[in-house]
Each structure stands twice: as structure tokens, then as C-alpha cells.
Amino acid sequence: MSILVLGGAGYIGSHTVYELIDGGMDVVIVDNLETGYAEAVHPKAKFYKGDIRSRSFIDSVFEQEKIDAVIHFAANSLVGESMVNPLKYYDNNLCGTKVLLESMVAHGIDKIVFSSTAATYGEPESIPILETDNNKPTNTYGETKLAMEKMFYWTSKAHGLRYVSLRYFNACGAHMSGEIGEAHNPETHLIPLILKVPNNQRENITIFGDDYDTKDGTCVRDYIHVTDLAQAHILAVKYLMDGGESNIFNLGNGVGFTVKEVIEVARKVTGHPIPAVMAERRAGDPAKLIASSAKAVEILGWKPQYADLETIIASAWKWHSTHPNGYKK
Ligand code: UDP
């Protein structure tokens, strides 16, 4: 079976490619290397450098390769940046997906799994969040991901294509081998920023707000290991191969940790005191996001293997302590 992974040189994409190849599948990667890294491309995958917004490029990949299903990670994903530069997000996330879908329909490729996000919900109406809850994104990033989901929905109705949308909560951690991991530039995510302190790249970690209505006043998130997310993509491909209907699944551990608790676990893992300083709330941050992943467990048979936060942070630390500058030498 041959899987096309769009964005396979990025954080979650590269981890999914590793799991696909470990599972004996043939993998073709497309990535424009704008936020992905050539070093993250698995040596056994076939790699095409290019942009999904180019119809001739994506057509040429489908013409050269026999693809059974597509996994689509090729999108911009920084909440803050999406508020400052919304049209970049509409262009890459929506225009890119539109061109991709046109090409898939033209080439008769009818199965796709794609990364969506908890940001499609916005401020949650209840906890844990269910797939049937309201979608009211509070930022452009979540808005474009929700629009992508709708684009898949209407395209599937018209052209018979089937899709699975996976709404991730807080992706984190690194491959257990320590070979690949998280490398964003600029980095905005909590765990890699915390680990910059024991890596001597920052003096302290800033906590964005301690006046939320949570047990210690800091925001609560559901942290999910990137390899567990990767496994869910493989299960979703199998689900579509077995004839499953188009569907949407949350992916999280169903357990929430405050920012202070995450810092405390990082102190334990690294043995470093990691000083923390308080700051104002960050715009657009909901107080609490926790997934119900019961649907993915029941229908996809998904079982997270690295649910424990200490294991997650230890895997991230293995990567960051040996690659303090990410993929840069
Ligand atoms: N956060 C923080 N300090 C930082 C970065 C993040 O306190 O330097 C908080 C942020 O406000 C949120 C949580 O950590 O409540 C997780 O943020 P992240 O950016 O990792 O993921 P998000 O939940 O925005 O997808």
C-alpha cells in the first residue's frame, strides 16, 4: 500500500511517516520545506519537494505514483501568526487544499486523512469536548481548519471521496528513538519553550496568565504524544480502506494539566529548577481544553501508548537535549 503524506517533513507528518514505514507501507512525501526540514524526511520515503498550491506539481505526483490514500498535514499552524497574517492562512490552508482536492478528484484518488485541531471548537461549551459540540473558532488558524473540514464534506458529497478529520489537542513529545522531534521557528509551544531553560537557551519560562478559573489559575490543556497521533492516522487510513464513512475524531488523552503542572513535571524530568515568571494572558487562549476521544477509541480502535505526561516530556527532552537547535547543525 502506498500512502502520499503531504507535509511529511513537518513535526507530526515526519512522525507519521516513521510509523507508516515501520508498519511496512510505501510512503511518498510532498513538502515545500517552508516549515518542514529535509533532515526529517525518512530515508526510506520517496520525496518530492513542491507546493500543493501548484496544480501541475501535484498532478505530476499523482501521475508518477500509484497512491492508495493521502494523509494531509501541509498547512500553517501557528495561532499567533494566523491573527497577524490571516490571508497567509487562507492561502496555504484553504487554497492549497482546494487545489489538492481538484487534483485528487481528477485522478480518482478517493481517500484522505487530514489534520484538524481542537481550535475548531473555540471556547468549549462543556468539558470534555465532544465531536458534536459547537464550532466557534476564536482564531484564523482554527477558522481555516474548520473551513477545510467543510471543503472535504461538500467535496465528498459531490464526488464520492471519503475523508477522516482528526482534531488534535496539544501535540507534543518526540520519537522514542530521539532521531526526530519538534522544531518550530519561531517556537511558541509550551513544552519546547520550557525545555529551552535546562538547555541554557532561556533564563525562565513565562506563564501566560494565572487568573483563569482552573485549579491553580493557569490554563489547562490535554497533551498528547506525537507518536500516538501518528498511530491514529494509520488507523484512520485502515478505516477508510475498510470502507468506513467520512468521519471526524478528537485525539487527546482526556486528561488536563495546568501550565504549572507541566512545568513541575519538566523540573522532575530534567532535574533543573526551571524558574517561572508570571505574565499577562495570551490573547485567544481558552481556559480549559480537554478532549473526549471515546469515539476514536471505539471506532478506530485507537489506544494511546505514551499517555503519561512524564513519558511525553522525557521523550521531548531526549530530542531537545541532543538537538538544542532542532535540525540545524
Ligand atoms: N503557555 C505559557 N507560556 C508559554 C507558552 C504557552 O504559559 O511560553 C501556555 C499557553 O497560554 C497555553 C498552554 O501553555 O495555555 C499551551 O500553549 P501552546 O502554545 O503550547 O498550545 P495551544 O494550547 O495554544 O495549542
List of distinct ligands in this structure: uridine-5'-diphosphate
Are there runs of 5+ residues with pLDDT below 50, and where? none
Distance between the termini: 35 Å
Count all strands and give the number.
13
Task: Classify the secondary structure makeup into a structural class.
Answer: alpha/beta
Tally of helical segments: 10
**Percentage beta strand:** 15-25%
Quick overview of this protein structure:
With 329 residues, this protein is an alpha/beta fold. Helix content is 38%, strand content 17%. The protein has ten helices and 13 strands.
Written description of the protein model:
With 329 residues, the protein is of the alpha/beta class. It contains 10 helices and 13 strands. It has helices spanning 11-22, 55-64, 79-84, 86-107, 140-159, 190-195, 226-241, 259-270, 294-300, 309-322; strands at residues 2-6, 26-31, 46-49, 69-72, 111-117, 162-168, 170-172, 205-208, 220-221, 223-225, 247-251, 257-258, 276-279. The strands form 4 sheets. It has a 7-stranded parallel β-sheet, sandwiched between helices. The protein has a two-stranded parallel sheet with strand order 7-10. The radius of gyration is 19 Å and the shape is globular. The structure holds uridine-5'-diphosphate. Uridine-5'-diphosphate binds next to helix 6 and strand 8.
Give short descriptive properties of this protein.
329 residues, 13 strands, two-stranded parallel ribbon, single chain, binds uridine-5'-diphosphate, alpha/beta, 7-stranded parallel β-sheet, 17% strand
